[in-house]
Amino acid sequence: MTAPLRPATLAFRDDGTPYSPAYDDVYHSAAGALAQAQHVFIGGNKLPSRWRGRRLFTILETGFGLGGNFLATWAAWRGDPARPQRLAFVSIEKHPFSAHDLRALHERIVAHATIAPLARALADAWPLPLPGVHRLEFEGGRVTLTIAFGDALELLPKLWLRADAFYLDGFSPAKNPDLWSPPVFKALARLAGKDATLATYTSAGHVRRGLEAAGFLCAKAQGFAGKREMLVGTFAPRWRVRRHEPPLPIDCTERQAVVIGAGLAGCAVTERLVARGWQVTLVDRHARVASETSGNPGAVFHPLLSRDDSVASRISRAGFLYALDRWRVLEAAGHRFERSANGLLHLPADEEEEQTLAEAIATHAFPAEFARMLSAGEAQALAGAALTGLSVRGCFYPQGGSLNPAALAAALCSSAAHASSWRGGVQVDRIVREGVVWNVIDDVGRLVARAPVVIVANAHDAARLARSRHVPTRIVRGQLTRLPPRFATGLRVPVIGDGYAVPLADGLLTGATYEPDDEDAAIRPSGHAENLARLSKLIPSLTNELAAIDPATLAGRVGFRCVTSDRLPMAGQFADERASEMQAASLRGAWPLDLPRAEGLYGAFAFGSRGLVWAALAAELVASQIEGEPWPVERDLAESLDPARYLLRALRHGLADRFA
């Protein structure tokens, strides 16, 4: 179970230096955080000369602290005309400051006019104190900060990236020995790129010996601000120190991709790739984007809470938070998709569910800005007159809400329009690998597009196109019901429970039915009746009025969710199933990284009813894999989304030997 975060305490020594009471140590030398960052970490890693001419340069830091090293590095990147196209900065922080405290600290340590705006941007983007990996983007996405909140001993083995430089900047080895231990050094070696360098303020002998045992060649260098020595080093192992090489970008000369499927999943992937300089062809069987389930007039978004902070909860939290950041960027650029602004109310179905929600919030010490329980009176006051007589406590998600999925898909496509092309009304029959490119063929045998990378994002049809026997998905019919505007009167926020109620400008949206393996696209009165019955339980004050409605007179919409048996989406690179089956005996104990992969073939699909929460994160994960960038979630979570996870299970149980 994920441990709750314990935020840092804002404290200072007599000379004004920020200080940690928990570790009885300072965050930086009295000579200044930025000066220390420049000498020890930027200079110690021979930057900026080492990053010049690179498309991507990745830095891993072991203690974020006040963010001084990140700000100094960002400023150095900004000031270098020969800077890399993209700077990926990854850091871990066990005890993060609040955004408020971070601003107060930056006012003390940041006096330079060129860095002060960067400090404000960092504080403005600072995530809530929630455990796990958070991806922040600056400079139009060209500078990313991937910050992991939690214990480095637990998180370092879960990160997946190829580091070009290491900033080893925890509290001193005497004060925080865990951060300077062999498990940490081994984890760094697992992530080190060719000729990766390191630098650290300390010069302790056991630190040097531990790093050298892990494969780093270390030397002493001139220390900072009166400290005689510090350590620098280079990754130069004399023996094999890891089972797998860290990730590299796909090897292709043309940065072109085809995305099949123009729902939320495909539009999000298109936008994420275009943001990285790719040319994308977006293909769909319909003439317009978001013509299927993503075309629903409204949908809700919120995190998923559980007592044990399950994999599904962690993935949903990561997706929810990342989606919010992406939507803010789109909105700042002028795009609108009817996103509600007053939060979302979750009404438990019974006392057991109410207790589960309350215990999850208390156990994990979630901040009130993320989720909090409300009394029946508070919930009624928040939601409005429509919940008169409410008798149960509610769970409130201040950043949850509803939006128009089709408008969001259009915004994503508009954002990517300068480097993408649209091929609507095209039914893709198959994709065929020819040399280093994929040929996309339509249902009459015509070539639709060619590219070294294909991403299938077309829900239940994705597994067929990928020719995968080990990606089991099924469809679930969902019918929505639209009610006249009078039913939305007085409801101030979307409400969910057993079903949902979303107030729209032209009425109330409710639903949806859940009918596995039902392919009937016709609207059925029975579906409306089922939705009205659930709405009556959710908002009892509407019961009498709803009972007077003839379901056959109502409007609605039918969509088809694509789900997996574990209810988690598919996001990532496909396995080469034929090669895996031929090697079945040797792969019986395989890890995901052991599997042969289908070159240039990725998926983003099976989002079920949580497309708003998962689409952006899945797209970022796929784009990061293609580009060889740090992954935006912990590796164990990414492996829970891996399209090869069912193949891996078959191999482990001896069920994937094609010759058996």
UniProtKB/TrEMBL annotation:
<dbReference type="InterPro" id="IPR023032">
    <property type="entry name" value="tRNA_MAMT_biosynth_bifunc_MnmC"/>
</dbReference>
<dbReference type="GO" id="GO:0005737">
    <property type="term" value="C:cytoplasm"/>
</dbReference>
<dbReference type="GO" id="GO:0004808">
    <property type="term" value="F:tRNA (5-methylaminomethyl-2-thiouridylate)(34)-methyltransferase activity"/>
</dbReference>
<dbReference type="InterPro" id="IPR047785">
    <property type="entry name" value="tRNA_MNMC2"/>
</dbReference>
<dbReference type="GO" id="GO:0050660">
    <property type="term" value="F:flavin adenine dinucleotide binding"/>
</dbReference>
<dbReference type="InterPro" id="IPR008471">
    <property type="entry name" value="MnmC-like_methylTransf"/>
</dbReference>
<protein>
    <recommendedName>
        <fullName>tRNA 5-methylaminomethyl-2-thiouridine biosynthesis bifunctional protein MnmC</fullName>
        <ecNumber>2.1.1.61</ecNumber>
        <ecNumber>1.5.-.-</ecNumber>
    </recommendedName>
</protein>
<comment type="similarity">
    <text>In the C-terminal section; belongs to the DAO family.</text>
</comment>
<dbReference type="InterPro" id="IPR036188">
    <property type="entry name" value="FAD/NAD-bd_sf"/>
</dbReference>
<dbReference type="Pfam" id="PF05430">
    <property type="entry name" value="Methyltransf_30"/>
</dbReference>
<feature type="region of interest" description="tRNA (mnm(5)s(2)U34)-methyltransferase">
    <location>
        <begin position="1"/>
        <end position="236"/>
    </location>
</feature>
<dbReference type="Pfam" id="PF01266">
    <property type="entry name" value="DAO"/>
</dbReference>
<dbReference type="InterPro" id="IPR029063">
    <property type="entry name" value="SAM-dependent_MTases_sf"/>
</dbReference>
<dbReference type="InterPro" id="IPR017610">
    <property type="entry name" value="tRNA_S-uridine_synth_MnmC_C"/>
</dbReference>
<keyword id="KW-0949">S-adenosyl-L-methionine</keyword>
<keyword id="KW-0963">Cytoplasm</keyword>
<comment type="similarity">
    <text>In the N-terminal section; belongs to the methyltransferase superfamily. tRNA (mnm(5)s(2)U34)-methyltransferase family.</text>
</comment>
<keyword id="KW-0285">Flavoprotein</keyword>
<keyword id="KW-0274">FAD</keyword>
<comment type="function">
    <text>Catalyzes the last two steps in the biosynthesis of 5-methylaminomethyl-2-thiouridine (mnm(5)s(2)U) at the wobble position (U34) in tRNA. Catalyzes the FAD-dependent demodification of cmnm(5)s(2)U34 to nm(5)s(2)U34, followed by the transfer of a methyl group from S-adenosyl-L-methionine to nm(5)s(2)U34, to form mnm(5)s(2)U34.</text>
</comment>
<feature type="domain" description="FAD dependent oxidoreductase">
    <location>
        <begin position="257"/>
        <end position="624"/>
    </location>
</feature>
<dbReference type="GO" id="GO:0032259">
    <property type="term" value="P:methylation"/>
</dbReference>
<dbReference type="InterPro" id="IPR006076">
    <property type="entry name" value="FAD-dep_OxRdtase"/>
</dbReference>
<dbReference type="GO" id="GO:0002097">
    <property type="term" value="P:tRNA wobble base modification"/>
</dbReference>
<keyword id="KW-0560">Oxidoreductase</keyword>
<keyword id="KW-0808">Transferase</keyword>
<feature type="domain" description="MnmC-like methyltransferase">
    <location>
        <begin position="116"/>
        <end position="234"/>
    </location>
</feature>
<keyword id="KW-0511">Multifunctional enzyme</keyword>
<keyword id="KW-0819">tRNA processing</keyword>
<feature type="region of interest" description="FAD-dependent cmnm(5)s(2)U34 oxidoreductase">
    <location>
        <begin position="260"/>
        <end position="660"/>
    </location>
</feature>
<dbReference type="GO" id="GO:0016645">
    <property type="term" value="F:oxidoreductase activity, acting on the CH-NH group of donors"/>
</dbReference>
<keyword id="KW-0489">Methyltransferase</keyword>
